[in-house]
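Example record

One chain of 53 residues, shown exactly as stored in the release files.
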Amino acid sequence: QLPEADVVITNPTHYAVAIKYDAEKYDAPYVIAKGEDYLAQRIKDVAKENDIE
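Predicted structure tokens for this chain:
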């Protein structure tokens, strides 16, 4: 699901949260992935590969 994220929010090193928003289906954005340390880095890497900012 991560490549479908609209945005990935991170702190400089330890945390990452991927968020998706579909106004037609949901009233609010929702988290599709979150992680710390190694997983946060993987989320950032996948986001970069998929041009997610």
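Notes: The longest helix spans residues 37-49.
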